[in-house]
């Protein structure tokens, strides 16, 4: 049975477009996460740590290794401990 050569061009185009779209999705996702893999099954603790990391570094996936917080970190919490009149 002969091969329908004219059908290989659309098949190749569809295959290439699936490959390109998958690659662009992967690159876009990694760029949004600072090159780290995507997080799955995020619980309350992870959310809290991600908020803290965002306050420390400016990005939800950023982390710091020095124990000194940036200026203004002590007043950037949403929790209020005292009432201000």
Automatic annotation (TrEMBL):
Membrane topology reported for the UniProt record: Single-pass membrane protein
Compartments where located: Mitochondrion inner membrane
Keyword match Cell inner membrane: no
The organism's place on the tree of life at top rank: Eukaryota
Transmembrane segments: 7-27
Region annotation Disordered: where it falls in the sequence: 51-85
Pfam families linked to this entry: MWFE
Keywords: Electron transport, Membrane, Mitochondrion, Mitochondrion inner membrane, Respiratory chain, Transmembrane, Transmembrane helix, Transport
Feature: compositional bias, Basic and acidic residues: 51-67
Listed InterPro entries: NADH_Ub_cplx-1_asu_su-1
Polar residues bias locations: 74-85
PANTHER family per UniProt: NADH DEHYDROGENASE [UBIQUINONE] 1 ALPHA SUBCOMPLEX SUBUNIT 1 (PTHR17098:SF2), NADH-UBIQUINONE OXIDOREDUCTASE MWFE SUBUNIT (PTHR17098)
Protein family (similarity comment): Belongs to the complex I NDUFA1 subunit family.
Protein name: NADH dehydrogenase [ubiquinone] 1 alpha subcomplex subunit 1
Native source species: Lentinula boryana
Organism classification: Eukaryota, Fungi, Dikarya, Basidiomycota, Agaricomycotina
